[in-house]
Write a structure and sequence with these properties.
Number of helices: 5
CATH topology: Rossmann fold
Shape: globular
CATH superfamily: Flavodoxin domain
Largest sheet: 6 strands, mixed
Structural class: alpha/beta
Helix content: 25-40%
Radius of gyration: 16 Å
CATH class: Alpha Beta
Length: about 200
């Protein structure tokens, strides 16, 4: 079975509005496909993700089916735009719902997210990419994901001007290189973890 990837785009724009984060995530999925990974992107803004820190917040909550997609995948990509130097409010909502993994374990005492790798994508027209990557890496690791080496890619435009990543004729070479490294390392580590899962957790 090929590896599977799920990417959640945390743009504030619902489909079908154009999104720079959509473009960068699409480039990641294309890079992953070159390593035999089958990927899918969804937009958090298209769903009713209720506030809370459990895996099901009741009637009308779309998170349970998103949660299933995350756990059905081997690679999880979390993408966010930069707003006022921080990740989007929707991205924070996703992190808060992932918090439920802290209390959910499999029959060997491991968090249900164990054995899955995660990467991060960030886009924006102001400073803050490294800050956001650091926060998302820590949050994803806290809830059981494994972070490969160089598992982030980003693009930040010049401050106080209007160019967006989605409008560029071609992605900068540095961003392309980071995207390729993210895909290669995520696919490599996910393959290793699929073959040799983390050991049973001691009680």
């Amino acid at each position: 079975m090929p590896l599977k990837a799920l990417a959640i785009n945390c743009t504030l724009k619902a489909s079908p509005a154009e999104s720079s984060c959509d473009r960068l995530i699409s480039e990641i999925l294309a890079a992953l496909a070159r390593h035999g990974v089958v990927g899918e992107q969804i937009r958090a803004a298209d769903f009713n993700i209720k506030p809370g820190v459990t895996s099901d917040e009741g009637e009308g909550d779309d998170w349970p089916k998103i949660r299933k997609q995350i756990l059905d995948a081997d690679i999880f990509i979390l993408g966010s735009p930069i707003w006022l130097g921080h990740h989007s409010s929707i991205c924070q909502r996703v992190l808060e719902r992932l918090d439920a993994f802290l209390e959910e374990t499999d029959d060997q005492g491991r968090m249900v997210s164990y054995g899955r790798v995660a990467g991060v994508a960030v886009v924006g027209n102001e400073d803050g990419a490294h800050h956001i990557v650091a926060e998302l890496f820590q949050g994803l690791n806290d809830v059981g994901f494994t972070i490969p080496a160089n598992a982030c890619t980003y693009w930040v435009g010049e401050a106080m001007q209007g160019d967006d990543y989605k409008d560029l004729d071609q992605a900068p070479e540095t961003t392309q290189s980071a995207t390729k490294a993210l895909a290669l390392n995520c696919a490599h580590l996910a393959t290793l973890l699929k073959q040799n899962q983390y050991p049973e957790q001691e009680s």
